[in-house]
Design a protein that fits this description.
The chain is of the alpha+beta class and 205 residues long. It has three helices and nine strands.
């Protein structure tokens, strides 16, 4: 009896596999699941959250019956591959952080212990490129604002220098006028005083 259970356990494990898929937040991500449709024809398949159990799928989120129609728990769960060619990969649209976890795909192949089971561990990560471009735009806007402020400050500084230069030049002109007046005005006064007594003496004589 133990040998029979061990044999059944081996048959069950042979038809199962485990994958790891990395998806990016806000992007579509596809979990692969395929079979040979030329050999088996179009088969029934189900997708569920969690490891594939001994029968059916746990917490079924999508299923398809012989390719004729399918059930989907959410419009974000889609079979976008060619189902008639055996491509029953699950595509999750607009992946969210809550989508991370284990997904199980079961393909119902006729016969005992023939079902193909694929367990996929989905990891959701941040889109580095998108984050980088977004931050680059924000930094560019900040740099643009900073540059404008610096240009305005430089303009104001140049204006202040011009005003200071004009005041300084005006002060120099005033000082020069004052100096010239002090140098020439006393001489004229002295000359006037020197000539006045001579004129008076001449008149007396």
């Amino acid at each position: 009896m133990r040998g029979l259970y061990f044999f059944l356990f081996i048959l069950t494990q042979v038809s199962s596999s485990t994958l790891k898929v990395i998806g990016f937040f806000g992007h579509n991500v596809t979990l692969p699941c395929r079979y040979d449709s030329l050999t088996h024809g179009v088969l029934s398949v189900c997708w569920g959250r969690g490891m594939v159990p001994r029968s059916q799928c746990s917490s079924t989120i999508l299923s398809s019956q012989d390719g004729a129609g399918h059930f989907s728990q959410s419009p974000r769960y889609q079979l976008l591959g060619r189902v008639t060619d055996g491509d029953v990969s699950l595509t999750i649209l607009d992946a969210q952080w809550s989508d991370a976890g284990v997904y199980g795909c079961r393909i119902e192949i006729p016969g005992w212990f023939n079902d193909k089971k694929i367990n996929t561990y989905l990891v959701i990560e941040e889109d580095i490129l998108k984050t980088f471009l977004t931050n680059k735009v924000e930094v560019g806007e900040i740099i643009g604002i900073t540059t404008a402020e610096e240009e305005m400050k430089a303009y104001l500084e140049v204006g202040n220098i011009g005003r200071v230069a004009a005041i300084f030049f005006f002060l120099i002109i005033i000082i020069l006028v004052f100096v010239f007046r002090r140098r020439f005005l006393p001489k004229r006064t002295i000359q006037h005083l020197d000539t006045s007594p001579a004129e008076n003496i001449y008149e007396v004589l």
